[in-house]
Specification:
With 279 residues, this protein is mainly α. The protein has 13 helices and no strands. Helix 1 packs antiparallel against helix 4. The longest helix has 31 residues.
Length: 279
């Protein structure tokens, strides 16, 4: 019983930390830009092809880019919470990756069909595995395929938006069984979690969009004028959790027993912070 209480306490702390992170990013957008700019910027983000590397800061500005990242973070947390996910150190890394990739290539619209496809797979196969739900969120790394298709002109009698919806659902549905297949045949080596499986799907998607749909990929430029503000944001993002964890460990010996998963998260944050400073 005591072990269950410790796990629930750790899960709650991680959820509150991630929820606070998502809310801060979302609210920061309203301090960085006016509502009119946020709305027009989100429209620009949604209707951009988003092929890598598409810098949403360059396309729409800092405010809309933060809003897009915050909305994706909060929606991912809502999905995990609704399906009674047990938040752990893996969840921290996944949510942070989703938030980071939301600044280039991934938005609230092109990710939706893929997530829906994953949820349909889990519903049909009656799977309640916690790792599959998280891997389903990671499969949104293929979101640029969806937006590349729906932003292309209509070449067939079917609307490009309908094709993009079908392709997104298909990607989400097949990504989980492909992940399980490679996980079994690689003896459960990490291979960057969903990255290896998504790469295989991405090869097919790239060939399809170029050769069958005849969609040309246009390279995008990056924005560097907001470098100082983004730098300060990242420093604060990694410093605040580090200091918070240190306070927990120094003030109470009880917390160090309960926050086993947060210790791992603390190590990840320190490594990310040092990696960014030395980059």
């Amino acid at each position: 019983m005591k072990k269950i209480d410790q796990t629930l306490l750790s899960t709650t702390f991680i959820f509150i930390f991630l929820l606070s992170f998502g809310l801060i990013i979302t609210l920061a957008a309203f301090f960085l830009a006016s509502p009119q700019i946020l709305i027009s910027g989100m429209r620009q983000i949604i209707y951009s092809p988003s092929n890598l590397i598409t810098d949403y800061v360059q396309i729409a500005g800092v405010g809309p880019a933060f809003l897009n990242s915050g909305l994706l973070t909060l929606s991912s947390l809502f999905i995990l919470r609704k399906h009674r996910h047990h938040f752990c150190s893996l969840t921290v890394s996944v949510i942070m990756m989703l938030a980071g990739f939301s600044f280039f290539g991934k938005n609230i619209v092109n990710s939706a069909p893929i997530v829906l496809g994953c949820l349909i797979y889990l519903k049909i196969h009656h799977s309640k595995r916690q790792d599959l739900l998280v891997m389903g969120l990671l499969s949104t790394c293929l979101s640029p395929i969806v937006s590349t298709i729906y932003c292309a002109p209509n070449h067939f009698f079917v609307s490009a938006k309908l094709i993009a919806l079908i392709v997104g659902l298909l990607i989400g549905y097949v990504s989980l069984p492909i992940f399980e297949f490679f996980k079994a045949h690689t003896k459960e080596l990490n291979l960057y979690n969903m990255g290896f499986s998504a790469g295989m799907i991405g090869i097919i998607g790239n060939l399809t969009t170029k050769n069958i749909l005849a969609i040309e990929m246009v390279p995008h430029s990056l924005a560097f004028e907001h470098h100082p503000s983004l730098l300060y944001f990242l420093i604060a993002l990694f410093t605040i959790p580090i200091l918070a964890n240190l306070c927990f460990y120094l003030l109470s010996s009880t917390y160090s027993k309960h926050l086993l998963d947060l210790k791992k998260s603390f190590v990840f944050l320190c490594m990310d912070f040092l990696a960014y400073l030395f980059h």
